[in-house]
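Researcher: Quick sanity check before group meeting.
Model: Go ahead. Protein one:
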Amino acid sequence: MKISKGDFREYGPRVYKNDAVVFTVAIKPGTEKAWILLFDKKTKKSISEIELTEDFAIGNVYSVELSDINVDDICYLIKEDDSAYIDPYATAIVGRDKWADIHGRESKKFHVYSGISHIEKDWKDTTVSIEPCDMILYKLHMRGFTAGMGLSTGKVGNYEGLLSKLSYIKALGVTSVEMMPLYDFEELNLEKRMSISPKGKVSESTEYTGKTNYWGFGLADYFAPKAAYFGGADDASDGMRKMIATLHKNGIEVIMEMAFSADTTDEIILDCLKYYVKYFHIDGFHIVGCGAPIERIAKEPYLSSTKIFYEYIPEEILCDEKGKKHLFIYNDSFMNVTRQLENHMNGSMVQFANHMRRQNAAYGFVNYMANVNGFSLWDSYSYGEKHNFDNGEDNRDGTNNNFSFNYGIEGKTTNRTINANRFREMRNAFTALMLSQSVPLFVAADEAAATHLGNNNPYCQDNKMGYTVFSKTKGKEALTTFVKQLVKFRKDHKCFRIETPFLMNDYRHLGLPDMSFHSTEPWMMSIGEEQKALGVLYNGAYVKENEEVFVCYNFHYDSVDMALPLLSPGKRWRLCFNTAEYDGEDFSPKPIHDQQSIKVPGNSISVLVGIKPEKRKK
């Protein structure tokens, strides 16, 4: 093995020759001595300790090239003085090939090592470009999705299982998949324990607490694809690329959820995002759980075509946006406002109307009715309070602001009326979501009424409580069909997804405003706070479509007669569906006799289109 000065090109290990690897690492200020510790990957026996001397340094950054060595046979650690640790830029993690392998890892004292992937290799991929207005975002957890699908053991918790259900995802109309952490994290909750022998000798050991980090949030090895998901440390990078290439080939973009820990430096965050764009062609990132350097991320040229989703983006950053729309505000405001109305918790129709049409030409928004850090959509209408005791935190974890309602019984019931009400509210939620102007997102299996049994924070539940279980019943299958039809309806009507805000007037003189509000009387000038019913008229002419669309939201308990706006000569209103009366039929326009008003049942949404009826052939 030959040792020489490296090229300082990128942090982490890089394989530029068949028998050579360059390690570039930053050493903490004040460190007296530092080494790269090499180990045999199979036996974990020490091979060599390479001291990082001034000959390999620029400042506190050291770069070492090792040649005449089989790169695939080694793993390594960084050591500073008396502390050895995993390289934060490691491209693979050795020792966590199997998910939650408690016994196997316990025998090796839970040790893991930095690994080396051949990320510089070329690979075939297809470019996918989904405009924000065309996005249908679907959020899933690799393990939870595949386990919830009831796949064979060999396909649970890995990318092959995910790809085996690709036809299902495509059938939903999904364009973009947000995946919970795909990088390598420690799924076993481990603790350091100190012990004293009878002779007074103090020793330290690592023990498994019995709890699982199922979601993968917190401290992690962000540059290494998760070995357990992608075929082991030797194949993880190739496995992740294969998954991405397959999704891209099928026209689906990949959004990675990045849950950086609070102490992750700005530099590592930026380097990590650029790394996944460069080497894995990731289409976007949902950044959660930290004070991310969002201004630097927004202005980073390398990420200018990469979609960035973040809970809060300061107005001054948004106002400075130019070029391709790639910044998106991603939070629960739409969910909270809509749930308050649905569940009769003093919701505001003014806020709801504003959220239904929030949009900006320079940046976007993400709307959802449920997310992983809260009740599942079904549980939002099945539980009045959270039930998180199984998390081991005395029910203190998880949000208390759920705006949920159980509709008569807490949790599971066989009461047909209660279940019918819950399914109606599910249809209401999906309808409001899919007809909102922002990017719609829903969590995997919400379209199948999945439950987490009232747990609104199942971060540690590596079981059916935490999985997104796709159980088959008549009601759940009907809901899935309804969601598919809704997605298609959204795609068929561009008026719901234009990229600029509605101006609420007829600025192009097309006969009707681009969008307008109505109630029991047509043409409302304003919305009262006491109001719980609203008609929204979309003029299809503004998006070069021949249909007007009229959506009637009724969040009152009782039915309401909503005024139907006057159409141009020759056009008639047709009813596509009502969420309370839906029984599995398609959304094809159905004739209605009264063209002046329509009775909308309580707690329901009616959707109509204004069309010119085809003349009957003689």
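Researcher: Fine. The other one?
Model: Protein two, sequence then structure:
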Amino acid sequence: MNFETLEFEELDRIRNRLMILGGVVILIFSLLASRLWYLQIIEGQKYTKFSQGNRIRLVPEPALRGIIYDRNGVILAENRPAYQLHLIREDTPDLEITLGNVSQALSLSYPALKEKIVENHGLAQFKPIILEEDLDYEKAMYLETFQDDFPGVSIVVQPRRFYPYNNLAAHLIGYVGIVQEDWKELPEEKRSSSQIVGHSGIELLENDRMIGLDGGWQAEVDHMGRELQVLGKPVPSVPGENISLNLDIRLQKVATEAMQGESGAVIVMNPKTGEILALASFPDFDPNLFSGGIDQKSWNSLLANPEHPLENKAIQGLYAPGSIFKVVTAYAGLDLGVLTPETERVCNGYYFIKGRSDPFKCWKEGGHGRVKLIDAIKGSCNVYFYNAGMSVGVDAIHKYASLFGLGKLTGVGLQNEKAGLIPNTKWKKRIFNEPWYLGETPSTAIGQGFITTTPLQVINMINILANDGMWMPPRIFKEQEGVRPEQIPLKKKYLSLIREGMVAVVNSEGGTAKKVQFEEFTVAGKTATSQVISNETLETLDDEAKSSKIFQNHAWFVAFGPAEDPEISVLALVEHGGGGSKAAAPVVRKILSYYIDNIYKPKNEQTLNNHIDSKNLNFSERLQIAFN
């Protein structure tokens, strides 16, 4: 171009265009420089972390969950290693080939592995995807040995809850599961260990105590995800607290074996201390099924079981207590003066009340004849207690039943305990808007009708009776604070009379539980049969229906001993077992027999041996032993 021929105005336009262009270039470079400054200075730390994520892995060390022990230090719930199969996509050059190799080498379903990848497609590339939760030890060791053949795949050991006794005490110990919703609300140092939380029983009740504090470390890894070195100082995890129970796994095992094939509940306690030595509900379940997340088939099977294996019948099952309740009616009659030890009634098998054509029946056809209080308890005479109940009335029965702890929670602390029901006139009016009819009292007096109780309430009532009116709150833990013992305002002379009747049940001719008698260990007990349907309804059924198990009565037996100084009480409830002496008493006998042979006698023999040995020592040696 010949600039000499250009006019002045055209040169001026070109100069302006060059200045604008230069300004635009300067502006663009200024924006780029400012963006670079922002990324490096303002966001530098953030992107440094992102870049380090490509070569540095945070390796968490979940805290071990606290261990649960029985009273003798036997482990009931602990932690075992679970071998998780992890895959990090960023470290996997060819995902399809790697998944195929893993599937073939470890005999895992390729479509299932692929599904895991799809489910986690939104996860960052450098974060691990769990392909298998609990790999067999042999498979885990194979992959560790030949890890070079599986780039991006690794084995991570995680703690998994383990119950070495499987079904034993499952309802008391409870089970754990994988948390879903509230995990993100926990502090970061508890998140890994808190992904496994208690869902029932002690595992839920003491969950916060048993969760520990997580640890971990930063590790540098190579392009295949293999750890090269630890960066910085690892932070050790802190295990959760251990829990010790009053449970004796030996008695729990005997109780479970004694109830083999039956549904119901068994409870063993020390009436002097309130310690729960065994607590079982049947049918039971294996809590190990839940440790890694229960499969749908097993879950559906538990839910569909008509005998409700997930229900803790010891504290949630509601049943008419039957003849065991006669101890309440007996005490009410004694305290109100309508009964004395010499009060006599004639039982011919029937009891009529005015306005009712059908009689109330005694369980013994033909009746018991003339009976006094002790014999009435011994033979469980219905007619005797029909008379007593009618004399004291339903409101008095309600009052004394409440003193014995019925109709309210026991305070054991377990989840979803039920209070049961002891009716009175006010309750009937409030619920049905009807008055209490006299014809409803005889059934109430013998523990039928509207009355419902849990097995724990019943043994709690008998403990009060055995312990001369001193209520010892049921205690699960060896070190337990909370509700304190209470002296119930019950007269000891009347409690003593009722205990005498219960001793006769087991140890005298005509007693309903003679099969539970022991020579050197005096047992006091009470049988009961709890109706499932009324006699009137039963009569409408055909013979086949009558013989069906679901229409058979529930069987109860409760006992304590030695009667003169009780240190053990045992209750058995056998659902649809028929009579208490037939189905429940043998269960209690097996438990007491084991206790006497393996716990009671050895303890007393050791005490005797210590006493004999000390006689051979001189005074100073005996004095030293006494103060050690």
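Researcher: One line on it for the slide.
Model: DSSP finds 23 helices and 21 strands in the chain.
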